[in-house]
Amino acid sequence: MNMSLAVGEVRFSLVVPAWNEAARLPALFDSIDAARGRWILAGRDPQAIEIIVADNGSNDGTPTIAAMRGARVAEVLPRRIAAARNGGAAVARGELIGFVDADSRIHPDAFLAIDAAMSDPAVVGGATGVTMERWSAGIALTYALGLPVVWATGFDSGIVFCRRADFRALGGYDEDRAIAEDVDFMRRLSRLGRSRGQRLRRLRRARTVTSTRKWDEHGDWHYLLQMPAVGWRLLRDPRALPDFARRYWYDGR
């Protein structure tokens, strides 16, 4: 725990980019309440955690739900995930900052685990990692095929966190990237850490539960059948947005 913080100062800002997430936000906020409860039981100041919903042009009541659950709401345009993340970060007050998708549920120990990890000056940032909300053969194989990349690079998802000062020094997420902006950010954060003798940290005991709604919509094997072509296009042009990727990440709901 950072003992230098005065009562009422913000230790950790959690940014939730959201577009038409009214159906999913309540479950996320229930999990946030549980994690905040453990934080308080550990003797921590409840005001040290703030939640920011970066609303990216929703028309389904997402900002109203977020405000009712105690979050600060930042209205962000244009509609692009990197812009939403950066827009939420722009109003953050925490010494630490993290990002989680609106269709997730965080672990009850998430805030405590992130606080402990970032109290180590040898850690530049990291991620909690994820587990899936449901499993099948196709989802399990997709998950397993991604693990070697995670092990080799230290890049992961779930809640991605770092010091807010480092986030600003890196310029945040690349808003020219319609997708894969999170991988690019982790790469730059890792490089910054290496330049200072720091490392990324994965919090495998505080994994975030991530939605499988893309598998529900496109089929449990779709990632293996359709994503290789998208990946090839992105290798050739990181700022390209193939039609399938546009439909996959930006259309619907």
UniProtKB/TrEMBL annotation:
Gene3D superfamilies the UniProt entry points to: Spore Coat Polysaccharide Biosynthesis Protein SpsA, Chain A
Subcellular location: Cell membrane
The Glycosyltransferase 2-like domain, residue ranges: 13-135
GO molecular function: glycosyltransferase activity
A cellular component term, taken from the record's GO annotations: plasma membrane
Keyword Cell membrane: yes
Keywords per UniProt: Cell membrane, Glycosyltransferase, Membrane, Transferase
Protein name in the entry: Glycosyltransferase 2-like domain-containing protein
